[in-house]
């Protein structure tokens, strides 16, 4: 299988390299990663400045490139230019060093880099692990063992990605559950740093409005979650309610 690996943390992120090493044992792997930290960039693309990429010699087992763009740029540019004429079977984004659950996905560079694959008729999977600077071997093994099975579950129209999130393992992991995407709210504020400006800080607050089957609830209880996320933004329920109304 031909795999394009991307992330939002840069080429030397431990999770990315661990996943590349594991997957390259059985697959053809190419990395296209941003040249610096790009967390929170959502699915933004670079339109008003030039993109440039450089090949880096990291491993003989896979090819690695850095791109002066966003995570979504890495997916789009990787498919269109780096792998031109050799479309990957799947784009895997991660392994990110914090979870991307609930409404985090609106901002997540990791998840949106996987969603960008849908725009190119390629399967996408995002992987995150809530343990910064830890051993990512367990999560990488999970992805490798289940990759073909998970791809087989995705719709053939390639407009849905799987968003996978692991809590710290061990000892917290209780199992793996398929889940819906919940609502993760934050208490945010901007703090001023003299001579630099304002930086946003915050922390998640409560999950009382989430159902039992959401990633927010299950992840908090120690389960790894696999959530199908659809590219389609339609609110079908509201549309059915208003489609006959006159404005």
Notes on the structure:
This protein has a 9-stranded mixed sheet with strand order 3-4-2-1-5-6-7-11-8, with helices on both faces. It has 6 helices and 11 strands. The chain is of the alpha/beta class and 247 residues long. Helix 1 (14-23) packs across helix 4 (137-153) and helix 2 (71-82) runs parallel beside helix 3. It has helices spanning 14-23, 71-82, 109-118, 137-153, 215-220, 236-242, and strands at residues 2-6, 28-34, 53-56, 63-67, 90-96, 123-129, 160-166, 175-178, 186-193, 197-204, 223-230. The protein has one domain: Stationary-phase Survival Protein Sure Homolog, Chain: A, CATH 3.40.1210.10.
CATH topology-level fold name? Stationary-phase Survival Protein Sure Homolog, Chain: A
Strand numbers in spatial order across the main sheet: 3-4-2-1-5-6-7-11-8
Average pLDDT works out at: 93
What is the count of β-strands? 11
End-to-end C-alpha gap: 51 Å
- How much of the residues is beta strand, in percent? 25-35%
Reported for the largest beta sheet, the result is: 9 strands, mixed
Give the full name of the CATH homologous superfamily.
Answer: Survival protein SurE-like phosphatase/nucleotidase
Please state the structural category. alpha/beta
Shape: globular
CATH class, anyone?
Alpha Beta
Number of separate domains:
1
Chain oligomer state = single chain
Helix content: 25-40%
List low-confidence stretches: none
The name of the CATH architecture is 3-Layer(aba) Sandwich
Radius of gyration: 18 Å
> SSE string, helix = H, strand = E?
EHEEEHEHEHEEEEHEH
């Amino acid at each position: 299988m031909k795999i394009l690996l991307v992330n939002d943390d840069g080429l030397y992120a431990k999770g990315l390299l661990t996943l590349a090493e594991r997957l390259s044992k059985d697959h053809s792997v190419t990395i296209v990663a941003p040249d610096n930290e790009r967390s929170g960039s959502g699915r933004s693309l670079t339109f008003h400045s030039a993109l440039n990429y450089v090949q880096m010699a990291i491993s003989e087992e896979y090819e690695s490139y850095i791109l002066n763009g966003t995570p979504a740029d890495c997916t789009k540019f990787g498919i269109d230019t780096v792998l031109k004429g050799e479309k990957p079977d799947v784009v895997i984004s991660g392994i990110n060093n914090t979870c991307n659950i609930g409404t985090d996905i609106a901002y997540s560079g990791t998840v949106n880099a996987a969603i960008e694959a849908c725009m190119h008729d390629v399967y996408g999977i995002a992987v995150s692990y809530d343990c910064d600077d830890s051993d990512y071997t367990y999560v990488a093994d999970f992805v490798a063992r289940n990759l073909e099975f998970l791809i087989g579950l995705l719709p053939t129209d390639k407009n849905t990605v799987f968003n996978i999130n692991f809590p710290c393992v061990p000892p917290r992991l209780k199992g793996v559950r398929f889940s819906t995407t919940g609502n993760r709210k934050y208490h945010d504020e901007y703090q001023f740093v003299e001579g630099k400006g304002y930086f946003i800080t915050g922390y998640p607050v409560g999950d009382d409005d989430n159902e039992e089957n959401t990633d927010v609830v299950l992840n908090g209880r120690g389960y790894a979650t696999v959530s199908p996320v659809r590219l389609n933004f339609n609110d079908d329920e509201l549309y059915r309610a208003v489609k006959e109304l006159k404005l």
